[in-house]
Amino acid sequence: MSxxxxxxxxxxxxxxxxxxxxxxSFLTTAEVTTEQQQAITTKNTERLAxxxxxxxxxxxxxxxxxxxxxxxxxxxxxxxxxxxxLLLLASSF
Length: 93
Description:
mainly alpha, 5 helices
């Protein structure tokens, strides 16, 4: 994997590698597979990732928390319910 990372770093930092011809020329001398060369020239990032055997699989989990407004609304709802119960209780006397 480090070879492909080095190739991508070089491509990102070398201003001479701006057109397809110069990129193709560079890739033929780079120590990457033909499959990786094709993935780079076609800008197929998914295919390039598939060619790297030791690439870790990254899984992200998003924790959803209630917004502050939601918590305040719940408290207000509880207060309103308590007030309504008191009014009903008082009106029954």
